[in-house]
Amino acid sequence: xxxxxxxxxxxxxxxxxxxxxxxxxxxxxxxxxxxxxxxxxxxxxxxxxxxxxxxxxxxxxxxxxxxxxxxxxxxxxxxxxxxxxxxxxxxxxxxxxxxxxxxxxxxxxxxxxxxxxxxxxxxxxxxxxxxxxxxxxxxxxxxxxxxxxxxxxxxxxxxxxxxxxxxxxxxxxxxxxxxxxxxxxxxxxxxxxxxxxxxxxxxxxxxxxxxxxxxxxxxxxxxxxxxxxxxxxxxxxxxxxxxxxxxxxxxxxxxxxxxxxxxxxxxxxxxxxxxxxxxxxxxxxxxxxxxxxxxxxxxxxxxxxxxxxxxxxxxxxxxxxxxxxxxxxxxxxxxxxxxxxxxxxxxxxxxxxxxxxxxxxxxxxxxxxxxxxxxxxxxxxxxxxxxxxxxxxxxxxxxxxxxxxxxxxxxxxxxxxxxxxxxxxxxxxxxxxxxxxxxxxxxxxxxxxxxxxxxxxxxxxxxxxxxxxxxxxxxxxxxxxxxxxxxxxxxxxxxxxxxx
Length: 500
Known about the structure:
Elements: H1 2-17, H2 26-38, H3 41-48, E1 54-56, E2 62-64, H4 131-143, H5 149-162, H6 167-176, H7 180-206, H8 216-223, H9 228-240, H10 244-247, H11 254-271, H12 279-286, H13 300-308, H14 311-318, H15 323-334, H16 342-351, H17 356-367, H18 373-386, H19 392-396, E3 409-411, E4 414-417, H20 420-432, H21 436-439, E5 459-460, H22 465-480
Helix pairs in contact: 4-5, 6-7, 9-12, 16-17, 16-18, 17-18, 18-20, 20-22
């Protein structure tokens, strides 16, 4: 008689768990075997009791299925609890071959496209599933293929409420399922659950909690501090370009970083004429250049220049927390730029007061025989501002270059003409601390931002002897105090803590 009562109640439980049952499944047979061994009271309690099956969602909140009774008293025991059994003071025996999830490396991926993702942090770890909870998840996954749309939607909603505990089963079913529609639905569910996990981790991250986002240790070193401002910038980059932060890890290659930056360039080109670049966009374009021998992808150079010409650059210069690190990254980027953009690069480099202008200017003078007079003009301005006496031999090679630089300028003193050699004289005078007016440039002073103003540098067209006198004076200065011969400078060192 007792057996008949148990059998009757089991039929009720199976009906409650799956109203659309048609034939026995492996999952239901497993449930019946488990109940026959361990009793049905716990499952009955969880299914139709006051709390139902309980899960912890990605937000840390507990979620219960079934109809909750209007009672403020919590249950004395929760189904699936991992506490010791109070009746015999021993832990409950695990069920053989029970589908309790283990630490799966797949659970640590995020929206970064599979590179490397943040690990679970304290407060977000998911508890092991009880057999009853696993049974419900499996049943809901089966219902994703139900014939009725309402059943499929209801099952999907329930799985999203369960959250991260359902991920392992969904991934497993994705591998086993042969139905294309079911695979699409399961893939979308996995993506939504993963995105939800990342957003929870971002909330913790912006609350200054420890979250192990891939690439954050390296980017934190580059940004120079761990503040809300730097974390907010990291999150904006992660959301816009999820592949970039992981590629900044030291165990990745410059090829990996180049691929990640190519995706940044492609995304920015699509929105270039529709939406202004953000500060996160600006950092994303230059941050990989912190690594030695990194080669920028095509079109990256023009995008950075367009950012420097925008209001975003103006805002960034006023940001006391982020501006220093951006200046450093901009200097690393400048070294990689091409001759085609040399004028713009040196102009903005001097405007941002970036000392790497000296390196680029010197390399241009020595190595770029095809450099235009406009490019040489900016090179000599940069030398006047950042150069030292070891740069004078390179500048001296231009003392015989008579190519005109600017159109003739009409002044009260007559028509002033200038040439490359005149700018070389001015650059050497600035490096030696000689006033420009003393060299022969009447009424001209050094410009603290750009070395000097090229239009002001020149000599009267009808008095060529003044140019000759200035050339003799510079030669006398160099003879009396020869320039220092120093090794050619290399690239600036990598950011602290990012050494190979």
